[in-house]
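G.,

No rush on this.
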Amino acid sequence: MEFLHAAEKLKNELRHAYKSNGLRESVAEHSWRLCLMTMVSAEDIEDIDRDKCLKMALIHDLPEILAGDAYRLDLSKQEGRHEIEKAALGKLVKLLPKGAAREITDLWLEFEEGITMEARLVKLIDRLEVLIQHNEADVSNWNDLEKEIQYGLAEKHAERYGFLLEFALEIDEETKKKLTKAGYHPKKLGQEVYERYYGQLDVVGKSRP
């Protein structure tokens, strides 16, 4: 019961993103659609454990119960983030029976390392869900950096993780249309700028696949 009460805080923890109704999105709302996207996206991918993917998607942001959300494009908040979240997860799983605690810890570490097919797929969907949410929000809620790098970001993510390229291109096309309609002239994101924000290590000593 104590663990579930703690988990409720994800309903209150707000992310940087806004929703289509103009309200800030919560971590729990993001995680819900991430699970839904994982369920439908993993259906036709061969040799992938969809159940593991769903569990990974469900628990990937649990450390934010204690650590809070960190806006990905604010690089000043990324240094040491893995260790902060790992410590937070360790405190949380102490509230659970050993079996559940071990399963959640193992799944979270696998996700963070991003080596297995399941981890790469969920990492990609995590990134794509963010872009879809941005496209659903009013452009007035986008900051200048997002307006600059959003177009082409989905394709770069898909190339990095190795799945869902066609779907990513659809997201990028939505982005281009949204920005163009709002009077902007988007340029497709280049590799150098992409690596500035997404090229650093996810885990110390382990580069992203």
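When you get to it, here's the other one too:
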Amino acid sequence: MQNKEQLVPAIGQEFDAFADLIMQWPDATFEATPGGKWSAGQQLDHLIRSVKPVSLALRLPGWLLRILFGKPNRPSRTYEVLVEKYRQKLSAGGVAPGAFVPPVIPLARKQQLLDAYKMQQQRLIKIVERWQDADLDRYLLPHPLLGKLTLREMLYFTVYHTGHHYRQLAERP
């Protein structure tokens, strides 16, 4: 997954897999927080909270991103290097900052959140498709744990992060 033509389908696949898992998640356990971990609903809400600012930022013109966040002083990291850096941050105790921490999510909000999640997926893919591949390496966005990332790195993170939460739910007993 090195270029935009590979990133866009990867975003779609990871988002679809997570949405499918949530749709199949038993209603009786949707609100369950085993071992104090986030419920399925909270995981879903967290992903919406995480992708929404990325979609919003990608709608901004490049010149404004440059004014707000500066310009890269290094090439974009590979997907594998970015994932390893994120895993290290988590291992060192990194957690989601307050704005990304979901409230308790009742079962009654399941479909509403699934609809919002799918809408965010469509928005993200649509806006990424407008960017030139080379420009994904020319602009930065801030990440609360990883610092400033190129747009490409932020998209790598978005793909990995979605899969990370999918695996957390899929591995539950």
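The helical segments are 4-24, 40-58, 62-69, 79-91, 110-130, 151-170. The chain has a mean pLDDT of 95.

Enjoy the weekend,
O.
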